[in-house]
Write a structure and sequence with these properties.
Number of strands: 11
Largest sheet: 9 strands, parallel
Order of helices and strands: EEHEEEHEHEHEHEHHEHEH
Distance between the termini: 38 Å
CATH topology: Arginase, Chain A
CATH class: Alpha Beta
Shape: globular
Number of helices: 9
Helix content: 25-40%
Strand order of the largest sheet: 1-5-2-6-11-10-7-8-9
Structural class: alpha/beta
Length: about 325
Amino acid sequence: MTRQRNGSPPRSDPGVELPYAGIETFLKADHRDVDELDEYDAGVVGVPYDGAVSNRPGARYGPQAIRRASSWWAYLSGYKGGLTNMRTEKQVDFSRLSVADCGDVPVFPMDHHRTAESVKAHVAAIADRSFPVVLGGDHYCTAPSFRGFAEGAGHDTVGFVQIDAHTDTSTDSPLFGDEFHGSSTALVADSPYCDYEHVSQVGIRGYEAPGFFEFAEETGLNLYTMRDVEDRGIETVVEDAVAAAAAETDAVYVTFDIDAIDPSVAPGTGTPEPGGLSAAQALTVVETLGGHEAVEAADLMEVAPGFDTSEGTQRLAAYLLITLLERQFAE
């Protein structure tokens, strides 16, 4: 560092930190403990865990990668003194959005039950004070995060909007049992705070168990496949999905599995599935959800950055979360 002649640091300060400088937090936010969030709109926490995957591991590195990618938007907003969102044509003032990064939840790689308890406790502490934003991690982590949100926020019934390629309703798997990333929605629906009538799934494609459409009808699951998206349009589908999840509930929890997006756009994930959402459709999803008053918590799961050398997957993941928070707090 260049010093003045009297030996003190230079007084000039550009007031803008470069995206690759400084301590790595989401949106270059303040680092705070989970019990220090009373003055913040949102509290971000990472879950670097992928011990419950059924295919390719690597989502343990997702939180770090998403944080690093998010720094670009923090820099851009500071550099330009506010932003105009060219998609929504709205003025965005990130100075109105107060975010704190609470670091990572302690995880236990060989013990997913202990990890789940850790996730639940930390998200509950955030939900008691702020809007929780959870960076995954594999999708198993959503179930304890959902329970933590419901308990911490003091809600009796919580709706669940799932953006995903897969339904994650598997139970009694002969290989993986009842608790892995393919059973997260079943665990949510089996919790005291939700049932399938309050679950909406968007972007489902590929293959599910025999008789799945009959299962959806019997349980009341609000199912919107990629064919529905293609036929009806993504905005209409998401509006219906969040309305169904919000009906007769206290709040809505949003989970976004990055594999909902087509792997040609977001290859950095453990279980890629062809025929998914485009980047533009994914942004429409979070623009719509972020503008809904019932949405009070969100996670983004299954980013496995090692499978995308372009770093585009984590960049899009960060942009999705930032867009959701922008709609909630910064417009």
